[in-house]
Amino acid sequence: xxxxxxxxxxxxxxxxxxxxxxxxxxxxxxxxxxxxxxxxxxxxxxxxxxxxxxxxxxxxxxxxxxxxxxxxxxxxxxxxxxxxxxxxxxxxxxxxxxxxxxxxxxxxxxxxxxxxxxxxxxxxxxxxxxxxxxxxxxxxxxxxxxxxxxxxxxxxxxxxxxx
Length: 163
Ligand code: DLZ
Description:
Blueprint: E1 3-4, E2 15-16, E3 24-29, H1 33-49, E4 57-62, H2 68-78, E5 83-91, H3 97-116, E6 120-127, H4 130-135, E7 137-139, E8 142-143, H5 144-162
Parallel strand pairs: 3-4, 3-5, 5-6
Antiparallel strand pairs: 1-2, 7-8
Helix pairs in contact: 1-5, 2-3
Bound molecules: ligand DLZ.
């Protein structure tokens, strides 16, 4: 089931291994739901395409990207998964809110992965406007949800290879 992803520029030379041995969680923020829904669809479909069983994929939503960290923490504290994929979209506004949320969620996802020693994948778009987000949620720059899922498989596989 190992296949080469050709449509994703960042992964064009990377062979993605089979996802069939692994369990995943996808935590999706509901802010900018049209964008995050597309990221979720890309991530879920990539996992299944790579052989993950649908019953081995836990899907939950959280209100906004800021809550992705606690959502991932709740999953890792209660469920046995090999990777957790965090999906969100933060669009720059007129206030410094953008910087606070982006910084908090980047640090939070890093820390939660290290806390449980389970890969926690940063699939959060941080864009200046809606157009840039759409371009990365199935538009001309691909689907970053797919890339986050591919990263989750690669990291789960790396973890297993080291055990
Ligand atoms: C408050 C807020 C704002 C202004 N913008 C976004 C955004 O662009 N993307 C996003 O995912 N969430 C946003 N939020 C909500 C915060 O992530 C969070 O849900 C609230 O501050 C409550 O903690």
